[in-house]
Amino acid sequence: MQVTRRVFDSSRKEHKIVANIYTPTIPTNTQALPKNSKPVTLFLTHGTGFHKELWEPVLHQLFAHRSPAWTITSAVAIDMCSHGDSAVLNRATLADERRASWFTHARDVLRVLDQLHQEGGRRSFVGIGHSWGAGVLLLAESLSPMTFACLLPTEAVLFLRYMEDEKYCGMIERRKWLFADEQEARDYFTKHKLFKAWDQRCLELHIRHGLENNTTGEQGEGGVLALKCRPQSEAAVYRGADYASLYTTLRLWRVRCPTGFLVGRKSLQSPEAYVRKITEGMADRRLEVVEGAGHLLVLEKPDAAAEHYARFLDDMVPRSDARREIDFGRAKL
Fold it and tell me: Which residues form the AB hydrolase-1 domain (predicted)?
C-alpha cells in the first residue's frame, strides 16, 4: 500500500491534525467493482500514548482481503492533536494543557471528516478505533448521528462513572520519555511489561514513529530522542475522560449505525460481560472476543484483529445504507 501525509485543520485554530492516507498499490477503479461491492474509506484513531502508524499491520491485512461485499478505496489514520506527528506540529500550544477534553477530540474527528467530504465528495466512512480512540469515535457519532456507515470500536474506554484518578496520572507524568539513542529506547520498550506482549511489527513501528529528535533540549541533558507524545499530554487525555466517557456510555443509544465491538479475552479494561451489558440498548451492535489478548489487542494480535474486522465488514457494510435510510426517515418524523 502507498502512504501520503496530510495536515488537516482541527476544531481549534491553534491545533492541526496530521494524518496518513493509505491507498492500494494499484488504485481502485470504483466503476469496475463487482455489482454488490461497496467502496468504503476507513477512518482510524489510536489509543492514548500511541500514534497512527501502529495501524499498519492491520491495514496490510485488510487491503489484502478480498470480499464481494466491500472494497477499501483508502484509509485515513490520524494522530490526535497531542500525539504523534500532530504533537510535533502543535508542540508550542500543548505545553500547558493539563486536561484534554474528549469532547474536543470528537469535534476534531468531525472536523477532519468534514474536510474529507468537501475534498472528495460524500463517501462511506468506517470508523475503527482503539481504546481512547474508540471512545472518541463513539462520542463523535453520538454527537453527529449517521456520520459513519459503521463503527468498529476495539477495547473502547466506556466508563459508567465520573473518572478522576490523579494518582495514576501522576504515575504517567513520571514515565521515562527521553532516551540517549535508539538502542536505549529499544532496550527500554523490549523490557517494559507494557510492551512485552506486542507483535514485533508494532514494536518496531513504535520505535520508528513514536520518537523524535529532542531538538528543544527539554529537561536539559535528558536525552537525544524523546517520545512525541509527552507524558504530560498522555496524562491530560486520562484527565479528559472525566465526564466525557460517562456521557458517551449513557448515550450509546444514539449510535444508530451498525457497530461491531471487539474486546480481548484477558482484558481488564473492557471485559466481555461489561461491554455486552452497557451496549445492549444499541440499535445494531455485535460483539466478538479475541482469544489470548488484553486491552492492547490491536498491538498484541493485529492479524487476529484484522480477521475480526473483515467479518464485521462482511456483515455490516451491505446493510449500512438500509440502516441510514431507516434512521433518516425517523429523523424526519
Answer: 43-307
C-alpha cell at 158: 466506556
Geometric angle at alpha carbon 248, from 50 and 129, rounded to 5°: 30
Cell of 160: 459508567
Q: What is the pLDDT of residue 2?
A: 95
Question: 122 is written with which cell numbers?
Answer: 460524500
- The per-residue pLDDT of the chain, averaged, comes to 90
Kindly provide the b/e burial profile for residues 76-96, where b requires at least 16 CB atoms within 10 angstroms of the residue's own CB.
Answer: bbbbbbbbbbbbbbbbeebee
Nearest-10 crossing angle of helices 166-173, 231-239: 170
- Give the whole-number percent of the chain exceeding pLDDT 70: 90
- In the chain, what is the greatest distance between 2 CA atoms, to the nearest angstrom? 64
Q: Is 285 left (phi over 0), alpha (psi -120 to 50) or beta?
A: beta
Domains of the chain as residue ranges with CATH: 2-166+239-332 (3.40.50.1820)
297 is written with which cell numbers?
489487542
Pairing of strands 16-23, 70-79: antiparallel
Q: Which region among 83-97, 181-195, 210-224 has the lowest average model confidence (pLDDT)?
A: 210-224
218 pLDDT higher than 70: no
In angstroms, the CA 16 to CA 34 distance is 38
Handedness of CA 264, 269, 270, 274 (dihedral sign): positive
Please name the residue ranges forming H helices in the chain: 56-64, 84-94, 102-120, 132-143, 166-173, 182-191, 200-209, 231-239, 242-250, 272-278, 297-300, 302-332
How far apart are alpha carbons 45 and 29 in whole angstroms? 26
User: Are 238 and 165 contacting, i.e. CB atoms less than 8 angstroms apart?
Assistant: yes
pTM beyond 0.90: the answer is yes
